[in-house]
Design goal:
The complex is a heterodimer. By secondary structure, chain A is an alpha/beta fold. Chain B has a single domain, classed as Rossmann fold, CATH 3.40.50. In chain B, the strands form 2 sheets. In chain B, strands 2-1-3-4-8-7 form a 6-stranded parallel sheet, with helices on both faces. Chain B has a two-stranded antiparallel sheet with strand order 5-6. Chain B is globular and about 50 Å long. The chains are: A alpha/beta, B alpha/beta. The structure holds thiamine diphosphate (TPP) and magnesium ion.
């Protein structure tokens, strides 16, 4: 069945909400407006305003409210209009959601999903174009998921909802309209499992969310030039499925990591460190990272394009690790 | 006074005395380095916790800021487990992971002490949201200092609670100071901090927080009203902390005078209640002796239990970061 990423998310939440009355959705414009990006189309009509809760523009307040509701036995899904606004709720996410289980010695748990689009769309400016996954990944107590395809989006969101931990689920505005094959009927994809999106023998490229599409396009182009690229999507950023990447690196001896976020302390730095520790002897050369530029996202189109990794940059990086630049 | 029943009054007195003696002993244990970190004592404010919690059902929720020993004990927590938590022992309420500021006792429905000023107030609205969602006739009581009233998270929570008529009772303990800052240098409407809640349409009342009977009487009315579904309520309890902000702070110094502290000590909540009991000739001075004796033994036993308990095993370090499936 061909579905858009948006429809896949909608199905995942709809199926889960039909299954379990403890699940409710809360956020700005999730109800009568049908979602800022129309992800929750039809929800308030099907589930009613008790379970599809429109909020005022108070991210700290309603995220905290949802965390409290989770402590008392509900299974909230918080929609952040975009992940940028998660910064406003960061105290709740970091100090409460992530720590309450540990601080209480295991007495309490916070089964919550906080989801919404991260990364840049087109010319939305510096405050609406951020890739903040590394911030969330840094915090013990959180899981972080960033699917790239409709099939993954559906299966992973269902798992995230069922997971009894706080899960940050990062979508992307530019992915909502993308289409892909989605398995008919009920299925889930476990958190913490990477997937080889394209098998290859010469070099491994790790990329997630929007950047996965860029990496696949680069791989296609490189295959025409005789380079056989393996592309891996970690899908879940934390816990990271290191084994799948290590297995690939043992085969190829070369690794490129692509991310849209800022370079310094970015997710790629962590993945590189993990691979150096786990598979140093298998590497034929240094790991190469392709990242967003270290600037607040500029508005102007050519500058914005220059700030975000693209196919030519990934191609160049792959060639450089293969000594073919 | 209509509710002058001897056993009832002695029971309130005993609870306040337990908190008082427990806190005094905690200070001693801090001086002996058995307790470390931040230790905020509740001495002087006992009537608020005891009076408010006396009006609750055992299954109602309570949640607070970091000055939390009093609520926990008033909710019925085992003093030994509380002291063991302060000692960082494996037998503590939270197995030594929380410490003084993060007590949690789920069986007694104490949902935690939180150390980010204002950050737990949204959680309280969430507990109340969950009980309303599940059609349980429960109320949630949320304790915080007047220092939290101007925080953004408090205001967001007040708005959500009022907007959705949540069964939550906000109890602001106005002890006149947030660390060294007097209320008139922190809250614009310092003569009536409840205006913060009233401005959202929340009903509010001030009570003498040194008078346990007054606190309980007001709370009984408020709890009935909130339980009946009339929405949130805000109580400003006028109180005073007799000790420093924490053990790092002397009881008086640059920001408040010894005379001021002495003046407030004349309205010690324990002395006030005792006087009320004696005035009504419900008991004689001698009847308080056994209470002192009994409470002294409980606190001594708590210290013994904490002292003799083991520290957590190293294997506990990583336990309860995540819910394992
Ligand atoms: C967000 C935040 N800022 C600063 C602090 C440091 N701090 C701890 S307690 C406190 C004063 C709080 O006063 P109040 O809310 O009146 O509570 P009280 O100590 O009087 O019980 C401050 C500033 C903190 N814990 N959290
Ligand atoms: Mg105060």
């Amino acid at each position: 069945m061909l579905l858009s990423y948006r429809e896949a998310l909608n199905q995942a939440m709809r199926e889960e909400m039909r299954r379990d009355p403890r699940i409710f959705l809360i956020g700005e414009e999730v109800g009568y407006y049908q979602g800022a990006f129309k992800v929750t189309k039809g929800f308030v009509e099907e589930f009613g305003p008790q379970r599809v809760v429109d909020t005022p523009i108070t991210e700290a307040g309603f995220t905290g409210l949802a965390i409290g509701a989770a402590m008392a036995g509900l299974q909230p899904i918080v929609e952040l209009m975009t992940m940028n606004f998660g910064i406003v709720a960061l105290d709740q996410i970091v100090n409460n959601a992530a720590k309450i289980r540990y601080m209480s010695g295991g007495q309490l748990s916070v089964p919550i999903v906080i989801r919404g689009p991260g990364s840049a769309a087109h010319q939305l400016g510096a405050q609406h174009s951020q890739s903040l996954e590394a911030w969330f990944c840094h915090v013990p107590g959180l899981k972080v998921v960033a699917p790239s395809t409709p099939r993954d989006a559906k299966g992973l969101l269902k798992s995230a909802i069922r997971d009894q931990n706080p899960v940050i689920f990062i979508e992307a505005q530019l992915l909502y309209g993308t289409k892909g094959e989605v398995t008919e009927g009920e299925y889930t994809i476990p958190l913490g499992q990477a997937e080889v999106k394209r098998a290859g023998a010469d070099v491994t490229v790790v990329a997630y969310s929007k950047m996965l599409l860029v990496a696949l396009e680069a791989a296609d182009q490189l295959s025409r030039e005789g380079l056989d690229v393996e592309v891996i999507d970690p899908r879940t950023l934390k816990p990271l499925d290191l084994d799948t990447i290590v297995t690939s690196v043992k085969k190829t001896g070369r690794l490129v990591i692509v991310e849209e976020g800022w370079r310094f302390c970015g997710l790629g730095a962590q993945i590189a460190d993990s691979i150096y520790t786990a598979a140093f002897d298998y590497l034929d050369g240094p790991i190469v990272r392709v990242t967003g530029e270290e600037v607040p996202m500029p508005y102007s189109r050519p500058l914005e394009d220059a700030a975000i990794p693209d196919v030519p940059r990934v191609v160049a990086a792959v060639k450089s690790v293969c000594g073919a630049a | 006074m209509a509710d002058m029943d001897r056993d009832d009054l002695l029971s309130l007195y005993r609870q306040m005395l337990l908190i008082r003696r427990f806190e005094e002993k905690s200070a001693e244990m801090y001086a002996l380095a058995k307790i470390a970190g931040f230790l905020h004592l509740y001495i002087g404010e006992e009537a608020v916790a005891v009076g408010a919690i006396a009006a609750l059902r055992p299954d109602d929720y309570a949640i607070s800021a970091y000055r939390d020993h009093g609520y926990c004990l008033a909710r019925g927590s085992d003093p030994g487990k509380v002291m063991a938590e302060l000692f960082g022992k494996a037998t503590g309420l939270c197995q030594g992971k929380g410490g003084s500021m993060h007590l949690v006792d789920l069986p007694n429905r104490f949902m935690g002490g939180y150390a980010i000023v204002g950050g737990h107030i949204p959680l309280a609205t969430g507990l109340a949201f969950a009980t309303k969602y599940q059609k349980q006739d429960l109320v949630t009581v949320c304790f915080f200092g007047e220092g939290a009233v101007p925080s953004g998270q408090a205001h967001e929570a007040f708005n959500l609670a009022a907007l959705w008529k949540l069964p939550v009772i906000f109890i602001c303990e106005n002890n006149r100071y947030g660390m060294g800052t007097p209320v008139h240098r922190a809250v614009a409407l310092y003569e009536n901090v409840a205006e913060a809640a009233r401005s959202y349409g929340i009903m509010a009342e001030r009570v003498d927080g040194m008078d346990v009977l007054a606190v309980r009487a007001l709370m009984r009315t408020v709890v009935d009203q909130v339980r009946a579904g009339h929405g949130p309520f805000f109580i400003e309890a006028m109180t005073y902390r007799f000790m420093g902000h924490s053990m790092a702070d002397p009881s008086h110094g640059h920001y408040r005078s010894k005379d001021e502290v002495e003046e407030h000590r004349k309205r010690d909540p324990l002395v006030l209640l005792k006087q009320q009991i004696l005035d009504q000739a419900l008991c004689a001075e001698a009847d308080f002796k056994p209470l002192e004796q009994e409470v002294g033994e409980i606190v001594a036993a708590a210290v013994k239990f904490a002292d003799e308990s083991p520290f957590p095993e190293p294997s506990a370090l990583h336990r309860d970061v995540m819910v394992e499936d």
